Amino acid sequence: MSLIELNQVYKRYGEGESEVRALDGIDLRIERGEFVAIMGSSGSGKSTCMNILGCLDRPTEGQYHLADVEVTALPGDGLTMLRRHYIGFVFQGFNLLARTSALENVELPLVYRRVPRAEREERAIRALTLVGLEDRLDHAPSQLSGGQQQRVAIARALVTEPEILMADEPTGNLDSARTEEVMKLLQQLNRERGITIVMVTHEPDVAAFAKRNLVFKDGQILSDELVEPRP
Predict the structure, then answer these.
(1) Count of beta carbons in the 10 Å neighbourhood of residue 81
(2) Domain range holding 107?
């Protein structure tokens, strides 16, 4: 079975004439180690799909299997545990604590898991080293560039050692130079670490870094193509 499988997934809002099908019978398979970019205009269903894949929302109808687990059958706490175990999230906004160092920001998910302090620090340093910020451990977000802040956010997502990285418009707040910096880092994590990456973007130049491009329209997958990623 694929790492991710959606089978005839629908997501509906409203009823009767006001019903909106945000997803309209989606079938999707994503294998371990893929780097997938999900594209589409506003209202196409791409963000709804990302929320379901990330176990942040449930489909109205259909099945979702993640790592052989039927997600749609899980209770709320089961969804939370699955999300914590398998998925790391990176968003357009960096969501860093302003008065907290890069190291402490990255440690935060481990604090919630009650990981002992020495182990938290060791794992956070390792994650920041992985994203090339081993010399910025004590810097606050205001002392970092936009690209560096996003790399801290990526390190925070990686510190729990997830199998999947969900990235929602990860370069939306960055200029072109910082965008390339972050996208090359994601490519490196995918190629060298084998992390499966699912990324929502509206920018073709960003999607060009992925190995597979999906385009959504009106709640359906309009196209699904393997591409030669940008070097």
Answers:
(1) 13
(2) 33-58+75-226
Give, in order, the Cα–Cα distances in Å from 114 to each of 33, 107, 119, 127, 163.
29, 11, 10, 18, 21
Sign of CA dihedral 210, 216, 221, 223: negative
CB 102, CB 134: distance < 8 Å: no
Q: Between β-strands 4-13 and 20-30, what pairing exists: parallel, antiparallel or unpaired?
A: antiparallel
- 3 inside domain: no
Percent of the chain scoring above 70 in pLDDT: 100
pLDDT given for residue 21 in this prediction: 93
For 57, residues 6+ apart whose C-beta sits below 8 A from its C-beta are 11, 48, 51
CA distance 139 to 222: 44
Q: How many distinct structural domains can be found in the chain?
A: 1
**Does 2 reside within a domain?**
no
Domain membership of residue 201 (yes or no) is yes
Which pTM value belongs to this model? 0.94
The CATH number linked to 147 is 3.40.50.300
Tokens 């906004």: give the residue.
93
Residue 36, CA atoms < 13 Å, CB-side half-sphere: 25
User: CB of 26 within 8 A of CB of 12?
Assistant: no
CA distance 218 to 164: 26
